[in-house]
């Protein structure tokens, strides 16, 4: 079995940690910000040194391709270079850097491939600067409307389209990932959870991405003076919302042990300490592999009372996704490579969203997970030992070579 160079991979991880370094071990590298553009330029420089052809599409997605020996569609490895605010040095970028190391290993060993093979970078995966997350993979695969996304604004009022134009990375729509020119897509990612480490597994063989629903609840009451309004006459939206949250938690907890749910955003109006809140908005994110379980979540939401403590309660679905299944030959290639390399593995579904979930069903697709130390992600403590990163890269390399032989 051919293997990557662990020392080279370590250098790549350390080198890219400079871009957006926030001084505490993590990074802030928001999409199309100066640190993100620096990371992109460094990647392109390294790819060109390996003789790869560089293209960008109209969304700024980067495609770096090494020629194959036959006139076949390309197989690409990819992820993203942008981060959340105060994020870590592995989320997204590790998938790009392991892909780059795979190509460098092939070049160093003069190992040809039938298919063109390469590395790609998706623009604005995190959605930390421009909503929504996985924006550009969503546009490419038809899940989002490009014109609408171009008008998405960051907190400073800058539109995504403006930032893209100023970046000089906007290329041609003809360069987009498509089923005609691409035979498949592999994405390596940190798990972003504790399961692999807890179970002492080196590789996650990812079968797909779990389905989910995301709702926003609006609880409406009446604002009055905090000091003069009798307690019994109050229609306090925050008090009512807290009751709804507790009821949701209690009911959802009964459905299934594998169901995960989060009330992660809470906005209180007018948010003044001397005024009774008249409106509270909060979100519910619920995820599970089974569509039947997700339907039960929706039933719980629909059966909530429309009035609590004199306040109205409304629920609105923001978005949802069905469970995504990855391409069987790609999943099999990852599993077989793990076996042949002697890496312990766990077959699993991803609870987090990734660009691969949109790519799946558009071109054949697979994912590889490597463990996250203590389950940390989206924070400076995010860490995966280089030995485990190298395991993932070796699995990706050998899965890629197996697919290169088998696919037409």
CATH homologous superfamily descriptor of the largest domain? Zn peptidases
Number of strands: 15
Q: Number of folding domains?
A: 2
- Counting H and I runs of at least 4 residues, what is the number of helices? 12
β-strand percent reads: 15-25%
The dominant shape is globular
What can be said about the biggest beta sheet? 9 strands, mixed
Reading off the top of the CATH hierarchy, the class of the largest domain is best stated as: Alpha Beta
Sequence of secondary-structure elements: HHEEEHEHHHEHEEHEEEHEEEHEHEH
What are the key terms here?
Alpha-Beta Plaits; 408 residues; nine-stranded mixed sheet; Aminopeptidase; 2 domains
Description of the structure:
The protein is an alpha+beta fold and 408 residues long. It folds into two domains: 6-209 and 323-406, Aminopeptidase; 211-321, Alpha-Beta Plaits (2-Layer Sandwich). It is 33% helix and 23% strand. The protein contains twelve helices and 15 strands. It has helices spanning 6-16, 34-49, 93-108, 135-140, 146-150, 160-167, 195-198, 237-253, 291-302, 328-341, 355-359, 386-406, and strands at 53-56, 62-66, 74-80, 117-122, 182-190, 203-209, 211-220, 260-262, 266-269, 279-288, 307-308, 311-321, 324-325, 345-350, 365-370. Strands 1, 2, 3, 4, 5, 6, 13, 14 and 15 form a nine-stranded mixed beta sheet that branches. Strands 7, 8, 9, 10, 11 and 12 form a six-stranded antiparallel beta sheet that branches. A hairpin with a 5-residue loop joins β1 and β2 (62-66). α1 packs antiparallel against α3 and α3 (93-108) packs across α12. The protein starts with 5 loop residues before the first helix and ends with a helix. The mean pLDDT is 97.
């Amino acid at each position: 079995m051919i293997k990557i160079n662990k020392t080279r991979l370590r250098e790549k991880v350390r080198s890219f940690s400079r871009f957006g370094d926030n001084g505490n071990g993590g990074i802030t590298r928001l999409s199309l910000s100066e640190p993100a553009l620096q990371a992109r330029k460094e990647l392109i420089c390294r790819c060109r040194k390996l003789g790869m052809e560089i293209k960008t599409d109209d969304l700024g997605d980067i495609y770096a391709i090494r020629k194959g020996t036959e006139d076949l569609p390309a197989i690409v490895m990819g992820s993203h270079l942008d981060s959340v605010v105060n994020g870590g040095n592995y989320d997204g970028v590790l998938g790009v850097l392991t892909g780059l190391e795979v190509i460098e290993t092939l070049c160093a060993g003069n190992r040809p491939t039938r298919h063109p093979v390469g590395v790609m970078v998706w623009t604005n995966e995190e959605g930390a600067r421009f909503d929504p997350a996985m924006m550009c993979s969503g546009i490419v695969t038809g899940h989002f409307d490009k014109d609408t996304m171009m008008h998405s604004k960051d907190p400073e009022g800058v539109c995504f389209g403006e930032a893209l134009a100023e970046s000089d990375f906007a290329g041609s729509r003809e360069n987009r990932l498509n089923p005609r020119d691409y035979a498949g897509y592999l994405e390596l990612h940190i798990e972003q959870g504790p399961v692999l480490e807890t179970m002492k597994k080196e590789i996650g063989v990812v079968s797909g991405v779990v389905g989910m629903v995301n709702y926003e609840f609006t609880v409406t009451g009446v604002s009055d003076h905090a000091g003069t309004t009798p307690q019994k006459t109050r229609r306090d939206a925050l008090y009512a919302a807290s009751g709804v949250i507790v009821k949701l938690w209690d009911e959802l907890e009964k459905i299934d042990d594998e169901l995960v749910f989060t009330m992660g955003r809470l906005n209180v109006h007018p948010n003044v300490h001397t005024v009774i809140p008249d409106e509270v908005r909060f979100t519910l994110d619920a995820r599970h592999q089974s569509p039947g379980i997700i339907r039960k979540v929706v039933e719980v939401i629909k059966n909530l009372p429309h009035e609590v403590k004199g306040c109205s309660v409304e629920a609105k679905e923001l978005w949802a996704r069905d469970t995504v299944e990855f391409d069987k030959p790609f999943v099999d290639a990852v599993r077989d490579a793990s076996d042949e390399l002697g890496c312990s593995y766990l077959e699993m579904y991803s609870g987090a969203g990734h660009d691969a979930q949109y790519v799946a069903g558009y071109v054949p697709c697979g994912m590889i997970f490597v463990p996250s130390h203590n389950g940390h992600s989206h924070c400076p403590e995010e860490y995966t030992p280089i030995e485990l990163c190298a395991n993932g890269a070796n699995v990706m390399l050998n899965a890629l070579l197996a697919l290169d032989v088998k696919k037409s």
